[in-house]
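REVIEWER CHECKLIST
Item 1: Sequence provided? yes
Item 2: Single chain? yes
Item 3: Sequence as submitted:
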Amino acid sequence: MRNLLIWSIISSFITVPVFAKTLIVEKLEEESNYDREHGQLVQEVACDQRTVAKCPVVYSKSLYDSGFQMNLHEFMPSVSVVNFSFGFSLPTVRDNTFTTEGSNKNKPLNKYRLRKEFLSGLIDSNPDKLFVVAAGNGVFISNMLTPHGAPIGSKFKLYPAQWNRPNTLKVTAVDFTPQGSYYKRAPYANYGIDHVDVAAPVVFSDPNKSHVVGTSFASPWVAKIADELFEVYPRLRVEQVKEILLKSCDVKNIKSAVVASQERHHLGEESKLYKAMYGRKRKNRELYQKEIGDIVLVKSGGVVVPSLVKACAQNYGSYQFESIEKACLEAHKQSGKTKKYLELLKQLWALRKI
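Item 4: Structure as written out by the authors:
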């Protein structure tokens, strides 16, 4: 089985690296039962019950600790998928500890720069790894976390979800109806078709954990699926696995998503889709979101479906289809989608450059 690296950092910026299926690394700057539980929950989602016992926990230090960075780089050659269940944003002047002076690593701005520099370099120096990133639950404004999901992009910058790299896949969370027949983006989950790629549910095998929510637990669900693809089809490249995941999503209200994308293509910032994502006021954004009918607002338009992923990969791996797009279209067709749906899906992929 290929190795899956799960790396979780909670909203308070305490570092909780977790190596699932090979090693889990967590070292807290301050002891916290909650922080430990966060990493364990991420591990539980990414590792099934048979392998979770093989995910030992070892504690490391902060992102900018040279010893931790050296150990991480040494471990990277053995992994295929890296999960980031964390996010951080630029400190603001309203933070009374904000400073642009000195080299003290404990100062917020310097921490921000060091984190950003290290993570960016880590992603760029490992093009053969797929980095699955949680989109985040709101953003920090004046050191306060917003209670509602925010659009990642021009106004709200959250790293590493902000970065669009060939080897990153950003994941938001969805809520399902009790019957599981319909879904919508979770109210706390961040979104935006320019920076968030796919949506996923928050699923725990233990029903007693149904109250646990957050994009932190949606991304390892996708990371596990990606890891399984690398295991079954070791010849797949990172960009191919990413494309399969993007094109194996169920899209509700697909006609509305296509129409909104077409309008944005012609009107740009004056389009309803742009205003639904980047309007200044949350209430206005929500009004436009209802109007355009795109209920998830991610690049793929919907939720990753494991059965579609499996079928698409099998179709492509059988060499019956010359492209992943054709293999995935066949997978959607095999799942019972209509000819009209398939036509709209092709249009959506073209408009959003998937």
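Item 5: Key structural point noted by reviewer: Residues 9-29, 54-60, 93-102 have pLDDT under 50 and may be disordered.
Item 6: Recommendation: ____
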